[in-house]
Amino acid sequence: FVNLAYQCASTFRETDYRGGCNGARIRFSPENEWEVNAGTSDALVTLESVKEAYPNASYADIIVLAGQTAIESAGGMTQPFCGGRAPRVPKCE
To answer: Which pTM value belongs to this model?
Structure first.
């Protein structure tokens, strides 16, 4: 989950505004096909049940919270969670 959250945030591109966690586009093409995001699909599948349990939460918030919780569970510093990332559907391209 830490890798997924990191990749979700770190793949933002200013050139075309793709990547980044807002909208959780890491779930869709082309972001999910970028080499740097290899291996994130398994974590996304695991989080599907969380999305089903909390349908009003955006995938972006679920991804960030999963990464934050994983760090805290591993002994990392507790941080306040700041939700509110926008849900988005992929654009037709």
So the answer is: 0.82
Looking at the predicted structure, is the pLDDT value of residue 89 above 80?
no
Peptide bond into 87 cis (omega under 30): no
Residue 84 to residue 43: CA distance in whole angstroms: 21
- Give the Cα separation of 11 and 38 in Å (integer): 12
The number of CA neighbours under 13 Å toward the Cβ of 76 is: 11
- For the chain, the residue count is 93
- CA 52, CA 46: separation in Å to the nearest integer? 11
- Contact (Cβ atoms closer than 8 angstroms) between residue 24 and residue 60: yes
Alpha-carbon distances, residue 91 vs 23, 42, 84 (angstroms): 11, 23, 21
Give the whole-angstrom CA distance, residue 89 versus residue 23: 7
pLDDT tens digits along 45-58: 999 999 999 999 99
Mean pLDDT (whole number) for 37-49: 94
